[in-house]
Amino acid sequence: MTKEKLLSDTETLRRFIQLHCDKKHHDVPKKRGTLEVTFKEEALAELPYNVCEECETLMLYAYGKLKNCPHENKPSCRKCPNSCYEKPMWKKMANVMMFSGMQLGLTKIRKLFSK
Ligand SMILES: [Zn+2]
User: Fold this and answer.
1) Which of 44, 59, 64, 66 lies 20 to 30 angstroms, CA to CA, from 83?
2) What are the boundaries of each domain within the chain?
3) What tens digit of pLDDT does each residue of 82-110 get?
């Protein structure tokens, strides 16, 4: 894992989980928090979030996995030969990624046609 990769992957993670929570859990109480991204004791960024408890747990879990990824050149988790996620968390994460990926895709397509 490299510093740059950890930072960009964590930003993507936060963005996807935030979007998913905004759209899917709007009737669930949210809590504000900050995800502190650190790499080998060096503070890289503080990413604010405002999500429900379930999503916060998922985000912190996924961040922990990213941070401890043993691969020098981290493959995409989907293609990883020894995925470190536990099954239920993996399912949740796959859900979030698919949902938010589609949302972001749609926004892009809408922009293309909005001129
Ligand atoms: Zn949520």
Assistant:
1) 44
2) 3-113
3) 778 999 999 999 999 999 998 888 777 77
